[in-house]
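stuck on this fold:
=====
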Amino acid sequence: MSRKNYSFLQMNGPAGSDDPLTKLIEGHACNIGKLMGNLHSFECLLRIFLTKHNKQTEDGFDAKIGTFVAITHLTSYDSLKELILKFNAIVKDKFPELELLSGVVHIRDAIAHGRFFTSHPSKPMQLFKYSKPQKGDRNVEVKFAVIMTPEWFVTELSAVLQEMAKVVEATRLMGFDLNLHSHG
């Protein structure tokens, strides 16, 4: 197995400078931000849909720290994967074309729990995610590995936006609105 040198990236100049490394890092940060922002929006759409579908209270977004609020799909610790499974169970019979794909879960988990490296500051960042070691393990499995080229970001962002559109369409077809109405 060949060895490469990997390093972390550090800005050499102030934000917005003409330094090539700074530009590369800023572009990467912007792309990660777009992808994560849309993944968060996707999860929020799912939570609103499930809250509306289950006729749960929509309170909790104007609560102060220390306040207790009801456990609903808005406040639960359900993972993105669990939310997708619940959504798909609702739409599978009536609107099967709106069933969500689980691929976005892998992207979200890799970004949230993975490691970003580059073999050279002029090359795209790489993203790796490893399995959780069990007691006594000396090795972990590589679960996710990708070179994050601009094209990769476009493809993944497009996939997230397509899944978001399905939730919006299901919301429309079921007569729900996407606004939250706090009663607090």
